[in-house]
Queue: 4 jobs
Job 1
Amino acid sequence: MHQTGLVSGSCWYALQVRQRHEKAVSAALRNKGYEEFLPLYHLRRHWAARIAEIELPLFPGYVFCQFDRSDRRAPIITTPGVIRIVVFGAEPVPVDDREMAVVHEVIDSGIAAEPWPWLAAGQRVRVVHGALAGLEGIFLESKTQHRVVVSVTLLQRSLAVEIDSADVLLLRPLRQAALQHRGAEKSSLAGTT
């Protein structure tokens, strides 16, 4: 599993790039000495009389780059195809380390993944068996398939991984867990007076 933020103050940042320039930007950053990450997925396309398998970005229009916030950003921004570093206000915002680790874990597992629409709510689950054991995400169910959706909050983008429903454990919703925790505190305080 990849670890993020290991190099003194170094974090992963999302770079918005021109559509269909993700691979070129990734290679250019690598050539400049930056650690970059472009998660890809495989898609079968039918053209005329042939079928081709192509690699496409899981997060179209974005490449991840690891650097220290205090580093000069000009070499990154001037890379052909880079539009900007994703910011909040005027400051670059690092991608959450846990979310970045999960994306790396999904890619490293070799399990087929695909882009998925952004989801902010749903049933949170933890995978308890298989190559992705320990991964947390949002569980989706269709008539024939089950998926765990992993989201990158900063980009408001997600990816989906097929999973067997028997391999996941439903996590308590945070609000419900907090209310139960608060109730337990009140009852323990009432017992001490």
Job 2
Amino acid sequence: MNIHYPPDAGTLAVGITLNGEPLQFDVAPWTTLLDLLRNELALPGTKKGCDHGQCGACTVLIGGQRINACLQLAVMQDGKGIVTIEGLAGDEGLHPLQRAFIEHDAFQCGYCTPGQICSGVALIAEGHAGSRDEIRELMSGNICRCGAYPNIVAAIEDVMRRSDRSYQEAAE
């Protein structure tokens, strides 16, 4: 899908590293990162939920931090590294949290899953969660309308236990 801009609108050059690949493009100054990802770069994994930063369906990682793409202008990302759900899997296969979501059946309709996984990856990297309650609190910006929360928490907890002995000790 191409976005057609008014002839006098003007665009700005932006360079980002997206899922490990450097990209250069021109973008209208009012284009959100979410619209750029979905409409211009054909990456449908990042979802448009509320378009107000309240549901977390559009969560991506910018510089390793979880960010709502619907609240970010694309032009403000110049020079930054962005990872979407499409960029989490590596040469060895799925990211450990993607595998854990499958193992724990942590999705139902799947609409929120990309944002939940991106947020969970950042949560694990942040290292602030030491209990199920803290995982729930730190994931509270991501809404699952189907109610798969217990399985989402279990998937995140599983990855944390596998990767960090201190979490297992704190949780017991």
Job 3
Amino acid sequence: MNYLLQSLIKLQAIEFEEITEKNAGATVEELRAKVPPQILGHYDRLIAKGKKGVAGVRNQVCTGCHMRVPIAVVATLKHDTDIQLCENCGRYLYLLEAEDDQAEEGKTPTGSAKSKPVRKGRKPKSSPPLAAAPGSTMPLPMAQTEPGKLRPGLRP
């Protein structure tokens, strides 16, 4: 992973108190010195809005806004050639570790797959019985009950 993103992830973890360190202030200053001012400015704008500045990508989905990320962005992240932003929420993106991907696919660390739950089929819808003419097995149209006679309320 890109050293800039590693610095931003660690900075975000310290600022949001996800991890605790003894010299948090000194560590924050050291991490901020590693990041260029343009990237740090964008990160700080997101933090000022109350958002996290960095989000992971899992199964082509940004974990910050839960929107699908274009495949070209994911490919760039895999090649680790450039820093990418989410087109929807503006967070800096990084690929989550392979362990997280295996957990999402339902695999245990040994590589065996979990069994899928069995789905029950739907019950067929019951339809109302059709009226048949006396002495026949063929259904009649809804408006006619006896030959030559209409249902009450319907006029010819």
Job 4
Amino acid sequence: MREACAPEQSLTQRQRLVDASGRPVWYQGRKVGTHESGGVGGRLRTARRSVGLTQKQLAEQLGVESITVSRWERGVTTPSLPRLRRVAELTETTVSDLVRAPDAATAHAVELAALREELAETRELVNRVARTLDQLAQPRSAPGSLSTLRDS
């Protein structure tokens, strides 16, 4: 039986959990009614995040309220098969991947891909900010000022 982590533990601490065979796992045991639930809800959340959708965006594309997506992800309710098919389409995965437990390596790879994408976006934003700061730091000379006349 897997042990659940305390909410204050970091993701790194959670990743160090092991299953009954001693293999490290990236997920926690099912905790119904929390954002850390496993099962279909956890896989649905991972798939949604991997394509960069928010709960609200996914809900809009499915024609449901965002609270419904939240309930699915927390394991409070389960989407119908037609909705699962649509979720699979939108998240570029399969219904099979959403309903069966993936091995830890596959699920970990999906999470890593999503994190790499977020990191690339963050780097681009940081680079843009740095370029703007560099431009603002460059001295500007007013027309007709001493430095402008010397450069002529």
